Amino acid sequence: MGTGESRRAMALVGVVDMCNLYSGMPSANYEGETRSIRLGGHSTSIRIEVMFWGVLEDIAASQGMTLPRLVTVLYDEVLALHGEARNFASLLRCACLRHLEMKAAEVASARRLGSCGIAGERRPTPAMEPRRFG
Question: What pTM, to 2 d.p., does this model score?
Fold first, then answer.
């Protein structure tokens, strides 16, 4: 096998491993789940994937509130800022991604500080284990 073929084969192995990381998760994690919530005085249903509900629950807990309260606060803020809540389920998904991005940045920052050996700084704790749903 030539050098070019060897590189392509190695690259393909990396792609296959990456795909298994995502496609190998239990299908229950990405099944849609509908929950009923009262927003603006009206009962409504929101359908998003199970993993997103889990992240929203984490966000709510970190803010010291229940999941319905968090969703209500987000809904009210969107109405105040934009006058309407178009595609609210997508906003919830994006809020989850934003939350995870901020968490990852905090972990990376803590690792950088910890690896520099700055006096008085705490060493970072190991990153959270991947959460399994279902």
Answer: 0.70
Half-sphere exposure of 31 (CA within 13 A, CB side): 9
Rounded Cα distance, 89 and 74, in Å: 11
Instruction: Using only the alpha carbons of the chain, give its radius of gyration.
Output: 20
Query: In the chain, how many domains are there?
Result: 1
- pLDDT tens string 81-112: 999 999 999 999 999 999 999 999 999 998 88
The first and second tokens of residue 126, run together, are 């190991």
3-state SS of 44-55 is EEEEEEHHHHHH
| CATH number of the domain where residue 68 is located | 1.10.3990.20
At position 41, the amino acid (one-letter code) is G
